[in-house]
Structures are given as structure tokens and as C-alpha cells.
């Protein structure tokens, strides 16, 4: 996966290709749902 751009610098045509990074996140259930007592009160749990 990459990103390519082109531009003109005076009379010269320029081009650059840069790699892109892919960020993958995973989520897992936690034992305790409310990380703060206020969040539990607002959600009614």
C-alpha cells in the first residue's frame, strides 16, 4: 500500500511515492465494565 503525489517545481515535473502504514487494533471484553463509578451511575448499572 502506498501514496503517490505529483507536482511541478518550476519547469520540472516531480513525483514521490511514500509507503503507508496499517494500524490494526484489537478489542477484548474486560471483567469490570465501569472504569469510573460515575460512568456506572450515568448508564444505570
TrEMBL record:
GO molecular function, one term: phosphoribosylformylglycinamidine synthase activity
Keyword Methyltransferase: no
Residue stretches making up the FGAR-AT PurM N-terminal-like domain: 1-29
Pfam families in alphabetical order: FGAR-AT_PurM_N-like
Keywords, sorted A to Z: Ligase
Enzyme class: ligase
Enzyme Commission designation: 6.3.5.3
UniProt keyword annotation of Mitochondrion present: no
Superkingdom classification of source: Bacteria
InterPro entries assigned to the protein according to its UniProt record, in alphabetical order: FGAR-AT_PurM_N-like (IPR055181), PurM-like_N_sf (IPR036921)
Protein's name in the database: Phosphoribosylformylglycinamidine synthase
Originating organism: Salmonella enterica I
Amino acid at each position: 500500500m502506498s501514496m503517490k503525489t505529483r507536482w511541478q517545481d518550476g519547469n520540472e515535473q516531480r513525483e514521490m511515492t511514500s509507503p503507508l502504514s496499517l494500524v490494526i487494533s484489537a478489542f477484548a471484553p474486560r471483567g469490570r465494565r465501569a472504569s469510573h463509578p460515575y460512568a456506572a451511575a450515568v448508564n444505570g448499572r
